[in-house]
Amino acid sequence: MNSAEKRRLIEENYLDFFSFALAMLRNVDDAKDAVQEALVQVLTKRHVDNMLSYTYAAIRNQAIDTIRRRRKVLPLDDKVAERVDDQASRLELVGRLYEELPEALKALVELHDIEGYSIAELSIITNLSRSTLSRRLDEAHYTIKKQMEGKK
What we know:
Layout: H1 3-25, H2 28-44, H3 51-70, H4 78-86, H5 88-99, H6 103-114, H7 119-126, H8 130-151
Helix pairs in contact: 1-2, 1-3, 2-3, 5-8, 6-8
C-alpha cells in the first residue's frame, strides 16, 4: 500500500479511529494523542498486510499505554509496610494458587486485579461481554479462595 492509499484510508476512517480511542480512554485529548501516535506508527511502517486491522491494533496499544501512564504508584507508609510483612506467607500462597489457574483466567486476574483494568476496559480489550468477564473473574477468585481454605 503506497503513501497516498494509506492517507486515504486514514481520512476515511479517522472518526472511527477516534471513537475507538475515546471509548477506551474517556478523554478527548488522550484519544487524539493516541490516534496521532498510532497513525505516525502506521504511516512509517513499510509493509502491512491488513492496514485497517493494524491501525486499530496500534490505537489499542497506544490507549493501553496511556492508561498505564495514568496510574500512579503511591509510596507505602510504615503501617502498610508492616501489614505487608505480616501477610507475606499468605501472599505467597495466593501467588502460588494464582500460578495454578488456567492461562485464560490467570490473564484476566492479572489485568483486573494486578494491573487495575476495569471490567469495561477489559471488555473493550478482550471483546468479551462484561457479564462473561465478571463470571470468569468470580470463578478465578472462588477457585483461589477455596484452595486457600483447604490449605490452612
